[in-house]
UniProtKB/TrEMBL annotation:
One of its GO terms (molecular function) is serine-type endopeptidase activity. Signal peptide: none annotated. This is Protease Do-like 2, chloroplastic. The keyword Repeat does not apply. Residues 28-114 are annotated as: Disordered. The keyword Ribonucleoprotein does not apply. It comes from the Eukaryota. Residues 28-38, 103-113 have a biased composition (Polar residues). One of its GO terms (biological process) is proteolysis. Belongs to the peptidase S1C family. Residues 455-596 form the Protease Do-like PDZ domain.
Length: 634
């Protein structure tokens, strides 16, 4: 079966839109971006990047894939995973990276990351591009801007350096108060962001104020007063209904001027977001969304902005499936930023749920009515772990009844996934849950906070942690590292832990020996790599900072590292210390550790030695427990 692909639209250049002075909770938008394909792009993982084979300038100009500038080699993208088991990729994924052959039967990508041949492209353009008519002279088109971004991503395999920079373009729009909205993937790993208004030949420098990875929204500001002269911000409309007309505006591939495509609303439901590997409300439309549209607004017939274009679904079995971030998600992002002065993220309940459609199952659990979902597992680090138990049945959330399929009422005659109610909350909010425990109904309360992954999808601060001891390079396992190293070299055991294991305490990380920089001090260990380090001198390792602390405070003659599968590496402490400076010089490494490991170590996990002594992955989450076949994380 042909592989299906969903891609985010953006061409590594972002566009801007006017921002209204009053940022209400009901007005939020995200933009989508297209990456610029380089003349000779590198192959990359399909999950986060689109394939960009070498092409002539003429052929690339008619490709749905992002176009890169000046032969810049884009960095590798971070793989995304969705709760429904499908692979996702951000708009940056199409910035000239090749498929590594791991495509699954269904996948999503940021819009504009998938390419078609010239014939298909010309057909789509002729069929779906519409004449602007009343749109061409309206003021709100001038609120849509083109974004130009220069990206410099970390090199996760060599964490002390950066990858070669690359450029991309996308779209954005004005929301007032000197601010713009675009997609987070349009300005990921940005070193410079510039925006250009419609009909203007001047590019203005923009600053990224906030970046919401989970919702794929970024907030930009432009300080230049000249940029805002005569500018008008967009008005935000309500959540549309099915079959409502929708018009997508942006700067996709195929030309340099603004583009307008038209369609209708096909579906509104909780959708997997490719860039953030999260599940939030999304609007499916059939209007054409191509690379470069990312971050651009979608309008209704009244000229109101009803969302932000951000990704598409590609498959030989499906056509014209694009996605828009609705205003409800955008307003949540903006209100979160206003409340905290920064973006904190969408909260999670932290429970694994199973549907209760089977009558015998409900009867066994003493559930009298045809409602509720079964709690299969609770994340140990969440507040829900204090009030919920495995085997509980959640029948209501803030007095809203939960159906046996895990859905709740939505608008007049619709139902939507239970997770939608949780996404309406903010970090730190309290939710009241109605549960049935051993046949007895009761009420409990839980504090909601953003979910923390044992193996993160994105690295805070854009720079991975590392420490080098006598040429042994240690770093935390992350999805970007897995993407760069390839799944084959990472190994099955680490992949299983990355995909299915849960953090047992706050601050827990899987620390691995990434590679060994050959030197006389580490003879015999040169072939070791991608092994999880479990203990140092007999002490269980909690995270990379804990390992650095143990090494710094060690006064023993030997440094003993214990790995999985009973591998052991022993170094003579004084010899290892003496060899470090020489190794750093030989390999051109500026420092033996990342800057964050220079800070004093703080034990965030507290007294959890009993938990630490358990083996990693002792009870990993199974394939079913990550969202397939009716079992969903919420």
């Amino acid at each position: 079966m042909a592989a299906a692909v969903t891609s985010c639209c953006f061409s590594v250049l972002t566009s801007t839109v006017k921002f209204r002075s009053s940022l209400t909770s009901q007005r939020r938008f995200a933009t989508s971006q297209d990456s610029i394909a380089s003349i000779s792009p590198k192959a990359s993982d399909h999950r986060l990047r689109a394939t960009n084979p070498k092409r002539s300038p003429s052929s690339s100009s008619f490709s749905h894939k992002p176009i890169r500038e000046k032969q810049a080699v884009p960095p590798k993208n971070i793989p995304g995973r969705s709760n429904d088991g499908r692979n996702y990729s951000s708009a940056d994924e199409n910035s000239g990276r090749g498929d590594r052959g791991r495509v699954q039967s269904t996948s999503f990508k940021s819009s504009g990351m998938q390419r078609k041949d010239n014939k298909d492209f010309l057909f789509d353009m002729k069929e779906q591009l519409v004449e602007p008519e009343n749109f061409q002279d309206t003021a709100f088109l001038n609120a849509v801007v083109k974004v130009y971004c220069t990206h410099t991503a970390p090199d996760y395999s060599l964490p002390w350096q950066k990858q070669r920079q690359y450029t991309s373009t996308g779209s954005a729009f004005m929301i007032g108060d000197g601010k713009l909205l675009t997609n987070a993937h349009c300005v990921e790993h940005d070193t410079q962001v510039k925006v250009k208004r419609r009909g203007d030949d001047t590019k203005y420098v923009a600053k990224v104020l906030a970046r919401g990875v989970d919702c794929d929204i970024a907030l930009l500001s432009v300080e230049s007063k000249e940029f805002w002269e005569g500018a008008e911000s967009l008005d935000f409309g309500r959540l549309p209904c099915l079959q409502d007309a929708v018009t997508v505006v942006g700067y996709p591939l195929g030309g340099d001027t603004i583009s307008v495509t038209k369609g209708v609303v096909s579906r509104i439901e909780v959708t997997s977001y490719a860039h953030g590997s999260s599940d939030l409300l999304g609007i499916q439309i059939d209007a054409a969304i191509n690379p470069g549209n990312s971050g651009g607004p979608a309008f209704n017939d009244q000229g109101e902005c009803i969302g932000v274009a951000f990704q598409v679904y590609r498959s030989e079995e499906a056509e014209n499936i694009g996605y828009v971030i609705p205003t409800t998600v955008v307003s949540h992002f903006l209100e979160d930023y206003e409340r905290n002065g920064k973006y904190t993220g969408f909260p999670s309940l932290g429970v694994l749920l199973q549907k209760l459609e089977n009558p015998a199952l409900r009867a066994c659990l003493k559930v009298q009515s045809n409602e509720g979902v079964l709690v299969r597992r609770v994340e140990p680090t969440t507040d829900a772990n204090k009030v919920l138990k495995e085997g509980d049945v959640i029948v209501s959330f803030d007095d809203v009844r939960v159906g046996c399929e895990g859905t709740v009422p939505f608008r007049s005659n619709e139902r939507i996934a239970f997770r939608y109610l949780i996404s309406q909350k903010f970090a730190g909010d309290v939710a009241e849950l109605g549960i049935i425990r051993a046949g007895k109904p009761m009420k409990v309360q839980a504090v909601l906070n953003p979910r923390v992954h044992l193996v993160p999808y994105h690295i805070d601060g854009d720079q991975p942690s590392y420490i080098i001891i006598a040429g042994l390079v240690f770093t935390p396992l992350s999805e970007p590292l897995i993407d760069e190293e390839c799944e084959d070299s990472i190994g099955l055991k680490l992949l299983v832990k990355a995909r299915y294991s849960l953090a047992r305490f706050k601050g827990e990380q899987i620390v691995i020996l990434s590679q060994v920089l050959a030197n006389e001090a580490n003879i015999g260990y040169e072939d070791m790599g991608n092994l999880q380090v479990l203990k140092f001198n007999g002490t269980r390792i909690k995270n990379i900072h804990h390992l650095a602390h143990l090494i710094d405070s060690c006064e023993d003659q030997y440094l003993v590292f214990e790995f999985e599968d009973n591998y052991i590496a022993v170094l003579e402490r004084e010899a290892a210390t003496a060899a470090s400076s020489c190794i750093l010089k030989d390999y051109g490494i500026p420092s033996e550790r990342s800057s964050d490991l220079l800070e004093p170590y703080l034990d965030l996990g507290g007294d959890n030695q009993a938990i630490i002594d358990q083996d990693f992955g002792e009870s990993p989450v199974s394939n079913l427990e990550i969202g397939i076949d009716g079992l969903l994380w919420t």
